[in-house]
Fold this protein.
Amino acid sequence: MPRQVTSFSNETVKRIRALRDKKARREQGLFLAEGLRIIAEARDSRRLPETIVFASGGLHPLAAEIIAATEAAGGDAIETTPDILSKMSGKDNPQMLLGAYRQPATDLARIDRTSSPLWMVLQSLRDPGNIGTILRTGDAVGAGGLILLDDSADPYSVEAVRASMGAIFTQAVAAARWDEFLLWLRSGPGQLVGTSLKTDTDYLSARYEQPCFLLIGNEQAGLPSAYEAECDLLVKIPMAGRADSLNAAIAAAVMAFQVRASWRG
């Protein structure tokens, strides 16, 4: 039976509210997901929250089903007021459902490169919205997951999870330093493909191998020269206008769909 929480000073309210900060997420090993759509995606991926919070009042039948499943699995269900839910989520008009989920391990050892022909690799991306969008793209193209290199934004931040539209639950996520990733990559099959302005190879005419590791660089700086030198293939997306490059998430989507399309023939 869900327990009632009606006080802003309740410890559970404080603990869940703190998950908006990276330090608290690291300490608790949890992250937040908001809204019925994303939480339903998680359930469909066989992931249930450790704590689920919902506002008093009318409840969608699917939400009630997920709440019951969470309790049956030993999770905590909390019914509260819209004001307290707003405090937890940090939004003035929060979704009426909020879940706190256990973060999976992010070491490279959990990545099975044979499980998918395509993987997304991001180097020092700083915008969590871009990371969430690329997770969503990865899900759309059937990628195996996302490998974050160096000092990238947190894929489990509220912004990234929201932008992923549930793909945070369908895509494997790993994080590593460049040297660690390169050692792991070269220990098995895999073509490392980077996007660069320093090549004449058109992305439409390139030959992509499986598994393909698609490397996207930092939003402002792009890929460091030393990283480009380690790529098996560098390709360029030609620009017809005055812009010399695309947003990182858009470039990742253009490349991912082209890699997939090139394998159809």
Notes: The CA atoms of residues 56 and 234 lie 54 Å apart. The longest helix spans residues 248-262. The radius of gyration is 20 Å.
